[in-house]
Amino acid sequence: GAGVSQSPSNKVTEKGKDVELRCDPISGHTALYWYRQSLGQGLEFLIYFQGNSAPDKSGLPSDRFSAERTGGSVSTLTIQRTQQEDSAVYLCASSLVGGNTEAFFGQGTRLTVV
Amino acid sequence: QKEVEQDPGPLSVPEGAIVSLNCTYSNSAFQYFMWYRQYSRKGPELLMYTYSSGNKEDGRFTAQVDKSSKYISLFIRDSQPSDSATYLCAMRDDYKLSFGAGTTVTVRA
After folding, report:
1. Which residues of A6-30 are buried (b: 16+ CB within 10 A; e: fewer)?
2. Do the chains contact at B95 and A42, CB–CB below 8 Å?
3. Average pLDDT score, chain A
4. How confident is the model at residue A97 (pLDDT cuts 50, 70, 90)?
5. Is B19:B75 a contact under the CB 8 Å cutoff?
6. Nearest to A91 among B32, B43, B102 (CB)
């Protein structure tokens, strides 16, 4: 597709369950970001992938959060043992390269932990 | 103090008015500046992307960057009800984007 694609659009899960969120970036984009947007808050950086370089994981809030990017394309964000405070919109963005190019966002995955 | 400060509003204007939005920042290393528009329950959509100080115009939108004052602005001329959204400023020095909290704008018909 032409844009960044995320799935699922919405996810409701029970506290303590694991969830996987998927991001399919724009074809050819080597940089990929995950951000989190909580209600009424700005976007919080989670993790950054650039090509085959080691990812910048400095924004991951706890060791329950992990992400991988296979083949330099699709990325999966995994949240283990979900908590209610994990409820938020998880946004993925990609850009042609990491530095001086525009970043385009997907529609996000709205995660609700009940 | 946050790296990027943005008044969350809300801001309500009549149709046809000029909407003025702004952000201040503290990190002098920021080089690239963006404005995103986000409709309810949608992802942020890139509106404007600027690198240097000065003005950049795209249709009804004008972005201004003043690096000496660490201040950026977005102006929307002839505002329309369809411009009702949350506007987020963002900036980066290397690869990491830092965002403002977003300003919610309502344009009244």
Report:
1. beeeebebeeeeebebebbbbeebb
2. no
3. 93
4. confident
5. yes
6. B43
Give the separation between CA B105 and CA B86, rounded to whole angstroms.
Answer: 6
Which residues from chain A sit within 8 angstroms of residue B44, using beta carbons? Answer: 43, 91, 105
Provide the pLDDT for residue B94: 83
Is the per-residue pLDDT at A1 higher than 70? no
What is the torsional sign of CA A31, A32, A36, A40? positive
CB contact under 8 A, A105 and B43: yes
Mean pLDDT of A52-61: 93
Nearest Cα to Cα of residue A44 among A55, A57, A34, A54: A34
- B91 and chain A in contact, CB less than 8 A: no
Phi, psi of A33 (to 5 degrees): -125, 150
Structure confidence by residue, pLDDT tens digits, B23-66: 999 999 998 999 999 999 899 999 999 988 889 999 999 999 99
Which residue in this structure is represented by tokens 């525009």? A102
Instruction: Give the minimum alpha-carbon distance from A114 to chain B in angstroms, rounded to a whole number.
Output: 20
**Nearest chain B residue to A90, by CA:** B43
- Residue bearing tokens 């090509």: A51
What value does the mean pLDDT take over residues B103-107? 96
Q: Which amino acid is at B71?
A: Y
